[in-house]
Amino acid sequence: MKNPLPLLEINDLSINFPSEAGTVSVVDDFNLTIGRYDHCCLLGESGCGKTVAALAILNLLPPAAEIKGEIIFEGRNLLGLTPNKMRQVRGKDIAIIFETPASCLNPVMSVGKQIAEAAERQGFTRKQASNAAIEILARTGVPDPKARSRQFPHQFSGGMLQRVMIAMALAAKPKLLIADEPTTALDPTVQMQIIELMQDIVNELSASLLLITHDLDVAAELCGKVAAMYAGQIVETGPLQTIFKKPRHPYVQALMKTFDHDKFCPIGGSPPPLTAPPQGCRFHPRCPEANEICSSQKPQLQNGIRCSI
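^ that's the sequence the OP posted. Answer follows.
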């Protein structure tokens, strides 16, 4: 019998950070639902709050972060869990692939030991976990996995390090995989290999996927659902093909034009400072369709779009 509840449901999430310039509203009125087996892309310009929202799911934000709202995973609000309970979720039920694996892996521990730690969370003995790490490295396309499992992160190329990160996620057999810019700084050939590997893994695990990216080509390969984000807010959600072909929000329309392979059309202006976001719609200072209501009325996300016009 299928579980009718969504796997992940984020309700009215807001994340603020104190600073000398005032409170920084990094995420505001963030609502997102990911069903079981959904592959969802969180799309937007750099600095719009995508990664911060994802880190909140895993409770990996610094103590100074002021978090409000709900993050419901399999019926439990993750924001209300004790640190011990959260550690049982993190890595086992929800795993993450970071953008820069070289800075996330322990430089003085072999990659095999780091992968084995994830396997041990499944109840493996130390020997079983060590063998599993070798098998998983082989599964992710690392040549001579037994020898390479004894090597350290600095002995791997960028593409191979990303495979190690994916192997760690695979070892935990998560229900939700978060991938934060998994192909950044990789050459096109390696990018395609990583995309194909991730496709295979999420299908093999029957896992849901939350992909964080600003690359439409990567989103199109991996996801069927898109949530577009601007200045800390989700401004449009919907099926990938609908968003790509007939976007409704002016920002998403402009964003799609920036990826026109025949003609580059940059978005005029700059994103607003999050210490003092504009009143009303946060996009209205850059919006060619803005009118008086856009600068005075804060739009809500309704029917998949946050727009007053």
